[in-house]
Write a structure and sequence with these properties.
Structural class: mainly alpha
Helix content: 40-55%
Radius of gyration: 21 Å
CATH superfamily of the largest domain: Cell wall hydrolase SleB, domain 1
Order of helices and strands: HEHHEHHHEEHHEEE
Number of domains: 2
Oligomer: single chain
CATH topology of the largest domain: Arc Repressor Mutant, subunit A
Strand content: 5-15%
CATH architecture of the largest domain: Orthogonal Bundle
């Protein structure tokens, strides 16, 4: 009877420990010759910055045989949603402006004042649903396919996540109807868009 209870207790303990250890092992990567943080980040769909942060690194120097922890990635569905928004919001804008629009989405996900998911940020509304954070959601343009440039802009924004100027807003001053947005601190202007925080 004692051995049976001990066996159950031991099995439960091992399963509990495995629950905490296995996710770390599953997200581990062994550095190979020719690797760089950029290549590892691109391969795993994460930013270089998040890769450095989770591994407590200040430099980009890595050595073959080292073990790195790979942070959670932005899903392919989230990237597709971001690319559709970038395409709708920044059509006709320079490539850098498209990357900046994608960066705003990621900055909002990472900011305490916004939803903590890509979908939550993209579909966010205000005033009980009367106002949308992004006009393409309201007018349906979000449902149109993204082009290759918008998809590439999203990949670049993900790769450099957290390394920009912290922009959480963007607007076209020629067509913006919000007086409030003009009170925000401008971080950069690219094409027809002003980026702000």
């Amino acid at each position: 009877m004692f051995l049976n209870k001990f066996g159950i207790l031991l099995t439960s303990f091992i399963m509990a420990i495995s629950f905490f250890i296995l996710p770390t092992v599953a997200n581990a990567y062994t550095v190979k010759s020719g690797d760089s943080l950029w290549k590892i980040a691109q391969k795993n769909g994460v930013s270089v910055n998040s890769l450095q942060n989770i591994n407590n690194r200040n430099s980009s120097i890595i050595y073959p045989g080292e073990e790195l922890i790979i942070p959670s990635a932005i899903s392919s569905e989230d990237k597709e949603l971001m690319a559709r928004l970038v395409h709708a919001e920044a059509k006709g804008e320079p490539y850098a402006g498209k990357v900046a629009v994608a960066t705003v989405i990621l900055n909002r996900v990472d900011h305490d004042n916004f939803p903590n998911s890509v979908k939550g940020v993209v579909y966010e509304t205000y005033s009980n649903g009367a106002h949308y954070a992004f006009s393409p959601v309201k007018n349906g343009q979000i449902n149109k396919a993204a082009d290759a440039e918008a998809k590439q802009a999203v990949e670049e924004a993900v790769a450099y996540r957290g390394q920009g100027q912290g922009s959480t807003f963007f607007y076209n001053p020629d067509i913006s109807e919000s007086k409030w947005i003009f009170s925000r601190e401008t971080t950069i202007t690219i094409g027809n868009h002003v980026f702000a925080k």
